[in-house]
TrEMBL record:
Gene: map
Catalytic reaction(s) noted: Release of N-terminal amino acids, preferentially methionine, from peptides and arylamides
PANTHER family in alphabetical order: METHIONINE AMINOPEPTIDASE (PTHR43330)
Enzyme category, top tier: hydrolase
Protein name, as recorded: Methionine aminopeptidase
GO cellular component: cytosol
Entry keyword set: Aminopeptidase, Hydrolase, Metal-binding, Protease
Binding-site list for a divalent metal cation 2: D110, H173, E206, E237
Its EC number(s): 3.4.11.18
Names of the cofactor(s): Co(2+); Zn(2+); Mn(2+); Fe(2+)
C-alpha cells in the first residue's frame, strides 16, 4: 500500500534525511587508509544518537539469518550493498559505499554515498561519477504524471551506455514511517510503465552499478552482497519527495562534499 505524505510529514522526513547527510559527513572526515569499517560504524552510531535519533539499520530483521548488527552498511570494492562493519581495514585505492538510515520524530531517513580511499584508479572513479550522475537523472524523472519505469529507464540507459552492469535484485523503495514502503523503485525499466508518480509520494532512489557484469552473490553472513566477478560496484542514494514540480531532494550530499572538497566525486 502506498502512503502519500502531507507537507508536514515531508518536513519531518527532511529532518531525518538531513541528519543522515550530516552523519555521512562525519564518516567522510574519518575515511582514510588504515581505518576499520567498525570504527566508522562507531562514529555513525554516536553521532546519530547524540542528535536525538536512532540508527534504523541496527537490529533490522533478516528473513535468512540474524538481524543487522550495526548502524551503517559498509560495502568495500566488490561489495554492492549491506556490508557489515567490523575489522576490515581500508587500504589506499579502495572504494567504500556507506549506506545510513535514521529514525527521528516518527520518520525515517535513508541515503548512501561511495567514498574513495586515498588514490583510486581513474577507471573506478569514473564508475562512481556515472553512478552518481545516474541518480540525478533518475531524480529528474521523478515528477507527477511520470511512472516508476521512467526513473529506472533513465538510470539504466545512462549506466549501460558506459557498459556498466545494473543490479536487478536490489532496488529503491518508498519511505516514510517505515524505512521500506511501497512502491519498489528499480534501477532499470521501461518508460511509461509502473506506478504513477503523485504529489506526496516519497521514495529512495539508489542506483547500484557494477564495473563488470551485473550478477551478484550473497555472502555467508546472509547480508553482504558482492559482484559475482569481483569487480567493483558503486552505490549512491537520495530520498526525495514528489512535488507539483521537480522532485524535492530531502537528503543531502552537501555536508559530505564540503568535507571532501576537491576530492569529491
Amino acid at each position: 500500500m502506498i502512503f502519500l505524505k502531507t507537507d508536514d510529514e515531508i518536513e519531518l522526513l527532511r529532518k531525518s534525511n538531513l541528519l543522515v547527510g550530516q552523519t555521512l559527513a562525519e564518516i567522510a572526515k574519518a575515511v582514510k587508509p588504515g581505518v576499520t569499517t567498525g570504527e566508522l560504524d562507531k562514529i555513525a552510531e554516536e553521532f546519530i544518537r547524540d542528535n536525538g535519533a536512532v540508527p534504523t539499520f541496527k537490529g533490522f530483521p533478516n528473513p535468512y539469518g540474524s538481524p543487522f548488527p550495526a548502524s551503517i552498511c559498509t560495502s568495500v570494492n566488490e561489495q554492492v550493498v549491506h556490508g557489515i562493519p567490523g575489522n576490515v581495514v581500508l587500504k589506499d585505492g579502495d572504494i567504500l559505499s556507506v549506506d545510513c538510515g535514521t529514525y527521528m520524530n516518527g520518520f525515517c531517513g535513508d541515503s548512501a554515498y561511495t567514498f574513495c580511499v586515498g588514490e583510486v584508479a581513474e577507471e573506478i572513479r569514473q564508475l562512481l561519477r556515472v553512478t552518481k550522475e545516474a541518480l540525478y537523472l533518475g531524480i529528474e524523472n521523478a515528477v507527477p504524471g511520470k511512472r516508476i519505469g521512467d526513473i529506472g529507464y533513465a538510470i539504466q540507459q545512462h549506466c549501460e551506455a558506459h557498459s556498466y552492469g545494473v543490479v536487478r535484485e536490489f532496488v529503491g523503495h518508498g519511505i516514510g514511517k517505515e524505512m521500506h514502503e511501497d512502491p519498489q523503485v528499480p534501477n532499470y525499466g521501461k518508460r511509461g510503465y509502473g506506478t504513477v508518480l503523485k504529489k506526496g509520494l516519497c521514495i529512495a532512489i539508489e542506483p547500484m552499478i557494477t564495473l563488470g557484469a551485473r550478477q551478484i552473490v550473497m555472502e555467508n553472513d546472509n547480508w553482504s552482497v558482492r559482484t559475482k566477478d569481483r569487480k567493483c560496484a558503486a552505490h549512491f542514494e537520495h530520498t526525495i519527495a514528489i512535488t507539483s514540480g521537480k522532485a524535492d531532494i530531502l537528503s543531502s550530499f552537501d555536508f559530505i562534499e564540503e568535507v571532501l572538497g576537491d576530492n569529491a566525486i
